[in-house]
Design a protein that fits this description.
By secondary structure, the chain is α+β, with helices and mostly antiparallel strands. The chain is about 20% helix and about 20% strand. It has two helices and five strands; from the N terminus they run αβββαββ. A hairpin with a 3-residue loop joins β1 and β2. The protein is globular. The structure holds guanosine-5'-monophosphate and zinc ion. Zinc ion binds next to α1.
Length: about 110
């Protein structure tokens, strides 16, 4: 989608520290980390937020969770926190669905 920051990151038009990528998802470091490891996992397909997700996105939503699990396992994380802010009133600032993966003690709630 035009003028979407995370679409641009997914398309390589905007710089990001990418830690994982496949045909469906991209994971990159949050620019303002709220925990020792703070990654954002996004679908390459533009979905504005979970509010706009439909039945057809079920596989993709599961893929985000399993990608988080795999990245955390690769880092030998003993535990971690997943956050999906949804809608402006839910604290979502970037309007492209994303899953926060926080490993280590968070400094603040993202
Ligand atoms: P939200 O509040 O929408 O759930 O989270 C958006 C996250 O995106 C924030 O934690 C913020 O630090 C991060 N962020 C905003 N702009 C950029 C950027 O240009 N690059 C990266 N890597 N992260 C960003
Ligand atoms: Zn987008």
């Amino acid at each position: 989608m035009k003028d979407c920051l995370f679409c641009k990151i997914a398309e390589g038009e905007e710089e990001a520290d990418i830690v994982y990528e496949d045909d469906q998802v991209v994971a990159f470091k949050d620019i303002n980390p709220k925990a020792p490891t703070h990654l954002l996992i996004i679908p390459k397909q533009h979905i504005t937020s979970l509010k706009e997700a439909e039945e057809e996105h079920q596989q993709l939503l599961g893929k985000l969770m399993l990608t988080a699990k795999q990245i955390a396992a690769d880092k030998d994380a003993a535990g971690y926190k997943l956050v999906m802010n949804t809608g402006e009133k839910g604290g979502q600032m970037v309007e492209h669905l994303h899953l926060h993966l926080l490993i280590g003690k968070p400094k603040q709630w993202p």
